[in-house]
Structure formats: structure tokens, C-alpha cells
Amino acid sequence: MITPVLDIRDLGISFGGLKAVDQVSFQAQRHKITTVIGPNGAGKSTLFNLISGALKPHRGQVMIDGVDMTGAAPERTKAAGLSRSFQITSLFPELTVAENIRLAAQVLETARRAFLPISRSARAMSKTSQMLERFQLTHRRDELAGNLSHGDQRRLEIAVCLASEPKILLLDEPTQGMSHGDTADTAKLVRSLTEDVTVLLIEHDIGLVMDLSDYVVVMHQGRKLAEGHPDVVRADPAVQAAYFGHH
Ligand SMILES: Nc1ncnc2c1ncn2[C@@H]1O[C@H](COP(=O)(O)OP(=O)(O)OP(=O)(O)O)[C@@H](O)[C@H]1O
User: Fold this and answer.
1) What number of other Cβ atoms are within 10 A of residue 85's Cβ?
2) Cα 97 to Cα 156: distance, rounded to the nearest angstrom
3) pLDDT, tens digit, for every residue of 175-231?
4) Distance between start and end Cα atoms, the chain
5) How many Cβ atoms sit within 10 Å of the Cβ of residue 174?
6) Of 67, 112, 177, 220, which has the fewest Cβ atoms less than 10 A away?
7) Which ipTM did the prediction report?
8) What does the alpha-carbon distance between residue 43 and residue 49 come to, in Å, rounded to a whole number?
9) Confidence tier at 241 by pLDDT (50, 70, 90)
């Protein structure tokens, strides 16, 4: 049997009496895009916090590539190959575009080489150039990250996440606040990421979800309401009632 890269089993957490995530199970298949959707307050961000280790679940398990990482701190899930991009920008605005990427790529150097001067961090330097080119940011490499447009910042954030060569990328609304053109470019970019990583996405733009996702998990009031291929999920009457507001 093939081990799923991410296996969520019966995951749950409560805040006071509120079951924010309740008995949620699903698997993300390697090099595919799995998207978590659901109305506001459905538990999507909490689910991401449980997977990345920002929150410890009260029940259930998080398996990364067959290894039990339940409740492991974010540094450990990161070392296990999980990288997360936040809704709120997490770049260093006072560093250049290239420096932001190189900092993340520094983990590729062996421990012995990690503290070498920048000019001798060969792997990190080459990864940085590769990311700049792939994300069409080479012409902006020496610009301060804080001076980039919103769309470019979001793309840089994804480049930073990818620079450490993770197995799984958690993207929380990568197109939020983007123009129509930037959204289309980012969708293309996210699709191309599956060459390298497995993508777990939170996205509100339902058109984008249907275009982009290989698999959709629908959450509602903390629970998994449905899962499957985008077309199957869209046709599900329970999903239509809860999410699209139809009856
Ligand atoms: N730290 C917390 N303490 C108490 N309640 C919380 C906490 N974090 C989330 N909640 C509650 O848990 C529920 C799920 O919230 P969550 O942010 O995960 O939903 P979401 O699906 O990501 O929503 P949105 O689409 O609005 O981002 C909500 O009712 C929220 O108010």
C-alpha cells in the first residue's frame, strides 16, 4: 500500500464547549492539490494549526509520510517536511527579496556549513537563484520585500516556503486580496507546485477551488461534511445546502 504523504485521523480540538475541529479524517495524496473549503468559522484555520503543530489536538493523529507527528511543535513538523504560508504576510519587509528566500534556503546546508558566510553557502545561493527565476522575481531580487506589490509579496511568500524543499505545502488563501490577473497567475503557479510538493490549500474562491483542486474536503461546524473530486462535492446536496446556500 502507498503511504499517503499526509494522513489526518479523527482529529479534534475544542475551545471551551465549542468543537472547532471534530472527528476530521482525510488523506492528501502525493503531488496533488487537496483543498479544504467551508463557510466562515467551519474550522479550516484551526485544522491547519493542528496539522502544522501550532495547536495540539485533543484527539486524533497527524501522520506525515507515515510518521506520527501528532502534537509535534512547528519546528519539528517543518523538519518532517511541512511548510506553511500564512494568510498574514510573514516576510521580513526590511530584507531584500533574495535575502528572504536565502534565509529559508539556508536549511539546505548541512549543520556544519550552516553558519558559513553567505557567499559560501553554495546550495542556498543556487536555490535562491532558482526560486527567483521560477517565481519571476529575478528583476526584483535586490528590492526590499516590504516594497513589493501585494501580489508579488504573496508569490514571494510561496517561494520562501518552497525554498526549504518541503514535502507538503500548506497554503492559506494564497489569492486573498489579489487582482483578477494576479489570481489567475497564482492559480497557475500553485498548479505548477505539484511537480515538487503536495499542496494542502484553504481557498474561498469557489471557481478557483473547482479548477485547481484534485480533491476537496468540505468542513462545516468543525466536522467534515463531504470529500471527493470537485465535481462530486459540488453536486452533493448536503454541501449545496450548507455551503452554497441552496436547498
Ligand atoms: N483560539 C481560539 N479560541 C477560541 N475559539 C476559537 C479559537 N480559534 C478558533 N476558534 C473558534 O473555532 C471556530 C473555527 O474557527 P476557524 O478560524 O478555524 O474557522 P475557519 O473555517 O478558518 O474560518 P474563516 O474562513 O473565517 O477563516 C470558530 O467558531 C472560531 O471562533
Assistant:
1) 19
2) 7
3) 888 888 888 888 888 999 999 999 999 998 888 899 999 999 999 999 999 999 999
4) 40
5) 24
6) 112
7) 0.96
8) 10
9) confident
Alpha carbon nearest to ligand 1 atom 30, residue: 41
Position of cell 467534515? 224
Return the closest-CA partner of residue 78 out of 64, 92, 66.
64
Q: How far apart are CA 43 and CA 37, in angstroms?
A: 9
Decide: 71 and 29 in contact? Cβ < 8 Å.
Answer: no
Q: Is 59 helix (H, G, I), strand (E, B) or coil?
A: strand
Amino acid sitting at position 37:
I
Query: Does ligand 1 lie within 6 Å of residue 15's CB atom?
Result: yes
14 lines ligand 1 (CB under 6 A): no
As a whole number, the mean pLDDT across the chain is 89
The answer to whether residues 85 and 174 touch, using CB atoms and an 8 Å cutoff, is: yes
Cβ of 46 closer than 6 Å to ligand 1, yes or no, is yes
Copy the grid coordinates of residue 185. 497567475
What is the distance in A from the centroid of ligand 1 to the CA of 24?
Answer: 15
Contacts of 54 (CB under 8 A, 6+ apart): 48, 74
Ligand 1 pocket: which of 13, 18, 50, 173 to mutate (most atoms within 8 A of CB): 18
| Residue 60 · residue 10 · CB < 8 Å | yes
Q: Are strands 59-64 and 67-68 parallel, antiparallel or unpaired?
A: antiparallel
The predicted-structure confidence for 37-94, as pLDDT tens digits, reads as follows 999 999 999 999 999 999 999 999 999 999 999 999 988 998 899 998 876 567 999 9
